């Protein structure tokens, strides 16, 4: 190699490093805006739970912390595979890069499936039991979160999904509802008739509003990440990222680790403490 | 080159192990009664440690230029200002505890 070629090579290398850092800096600015996005929700959550300590306590106790802990582990493993993927990219190991990106995407999908199972268990948990007496339907048991909504044993259920109590078949739907099922109930606490959505969802109380909002938006970020990871894996397999031009992979990595960090905070503040 | 390669992979594995152990610790610590404030502080300290590990090693802040570190830390300052601005609201708008009625009577 002549001296001129060597100098040219060094300059070219300097160039891609500068370009690389510029792209990374842009990504960090985007992540800064993302941090503020989640800060808004976390800030609201701090205010809401500090003014509703009892409600927070009884609602939090209903969450499945083991599923969430398992999910934390899944995300941490995916962060490891992502870091290894970026490392493989810097070494120009194309096959390894594509494989590790795919594994990361699969782990992200696992996280979403577990989240879905968790959400579904909440949506189908009515927290009340009912029985029929002389053609009318009465609540026999109510869990604390339903009591906090004003429901008491002995309250009369007038309608389920718009069907009058007298015309209802079995009471399965009331005790094991689907998402969006509603009842019309006369509560003794105020003597009024209320239309009430069954199941545990954002409508249940302020804690669950915050819970679904924060974990939901985090889930959407994971979903977006999985889509981008799959595309990146395809491009990597096609050889789009030579060892001097892999900043896209690195930025995808930064985003993915950020999503992991958000969960690292959400897990304890929502489920544990 | 290869030695550096191995060192980096080893670092990642160590960070991963530390994160996994800290996850276990945070779950166990939440079961120990340290008082409400004690549990919250401990949980947050562990979360900050985990996030720092991810940011420094997986996100390469330890090896990157200082400017990236500044870009990463600045929003944390903003977050602290945000929480400080909410101070008047925190703990002052108490909602009464929910009325759960009498405990279910035995049949």
Per-chain topology:
The complex is a heterodimer of chains A (273) and B (107).
Chain A: H1 3-51, H2 53-60, H3 65-90, H4 94-123, E1 128-133, E2 136-142, H5 144-147, E3 156-160, E4 163-164, H6 172-175, E5 182-186, E6 193-197, H7 206-237, H8 247-272
Antiparallel strand pairs in A: 1-2, 2-3, 3-4, 3-5, 5-6
Helix pairs in contact in A: 1-7, 1-8, 3-4, 3-8, 4-7, 7-8
Chain B: H1 2-31, H2 36-58, H3 66-86
Helix pairs in contact in B: 1-2
Short descriptors:
heterodimer, A: about 270 residues, alpha+beta, six-stranded antiparallel sheet, 8 helices, B: about 110 residues, mainly alpha, about 0% strand
Task: Describe the oligomeric state of these chains in a short phrase.
Answer: heterodimer
- The number of distinct helices of chain A, counting runs of at least 4 residues, comes to 8
State the major sheet of chain A.
Answer: 6 strands, antiparallel
Distance between the termini of chain A: 63 Å
Radius of gyration of chain A, rounded? 26 Å
SS elements, strand count of chain A: 6
Low-pLDDT stretches of chain B are none
As a percent range, the share of helical residues of chain B equals 55-70%
Percent range of helical residues of chain A: 55-70%
Total number of β-strand segments of chain B?
0
Count of helical regions of chain B: 3
The structural class of chain B is mainly alpha
Mean pLDDT of chain B: 88
Globally, the shape of chain B reads: flat
Q: List SSEs of chain B in N-to-C order.
A: HHH
Proportion in β-strands of chain A? 5-15%
The string of secondary-structure elements of chain A, in order, is HHHHEEHEEHEEHH
Give the helix/strand class of chain A: alpha+beta
Radius of gyration of chain B equals 21 Å
């Amino acid at each position: 190699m002549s001296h001129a070629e060597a100098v040219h090579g060094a300059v070219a290398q300097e160039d891609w490093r500068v370009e690389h850092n510029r792209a990374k800096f842009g990504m960090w600015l985007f992540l800064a805006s993302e941090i503020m996005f989640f800060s808004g929700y976390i800030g609201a959550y701090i205010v809401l739970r500090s003014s509703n300590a009892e409600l927070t306590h009884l609602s939090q106790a209903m969450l499945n912390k083991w599923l969430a802990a398992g999910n934390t582990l899944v995300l941490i493993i995916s962060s490891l595979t992502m870091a290894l993927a970026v490392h493989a990219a810097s070494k120009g190991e194309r096959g390894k890069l594509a494989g590790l990106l795919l594994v990361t995407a699969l782990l992200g999908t696992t996280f979403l499936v577990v989240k879905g199972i968790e959400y579904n268990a909440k949506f189908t948990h009515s927290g009340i039991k009912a029985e029929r007496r002389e053609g009318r339907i009465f609540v026999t048991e109510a869990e604390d979160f339903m009591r906090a909504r004003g429901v008491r044993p002995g309250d009369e259920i007038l309608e389920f999904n718009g069907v009058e109590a007298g015309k209802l078949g079995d009471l399965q739907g009331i005790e094991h509802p689907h998402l969006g099922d509603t009842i019309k109930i006369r509560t003794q606490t105020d003597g009024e008739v209320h239309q009430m959505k069954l199941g545990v969802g954002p409508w249940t109380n302020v804690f669950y509003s915050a819970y679904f909002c924060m974990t939901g938006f985090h889930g959407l970020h994971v979903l977006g990440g999985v889509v981008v990871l799959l595309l990146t894996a395809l491009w990597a397999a096609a050889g789009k990222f030579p060892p001097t031009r892999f900043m896209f992979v690195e930025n995808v990595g930064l985003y993915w680790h950020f999503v992991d960090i958000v969960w690292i905070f959400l897990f304890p503040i929502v489920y544990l403490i | 080159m290869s030695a550096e390669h191995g060192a980096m992979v080893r670092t990642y594995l160590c960070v991963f192990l530390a994160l996994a152990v800290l996850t276990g610790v945070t779950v166990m610590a939440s079961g120990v009664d340290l008082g409400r404030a004690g549990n919250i502080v401990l949980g947050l300290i562990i979360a900050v440690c985990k996030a720092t590990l991810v940011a420094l090693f997986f996100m390469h802040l330890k090896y990157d230029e200082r400017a990236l570190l500044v870009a990463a830390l600045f929003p944390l300052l903003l977050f602290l200002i945000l929480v400080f601005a909410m101070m008047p609201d925190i703990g002052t708008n108490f909602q009464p505890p929910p009325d759960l009625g009498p405990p279910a009577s035995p049949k």
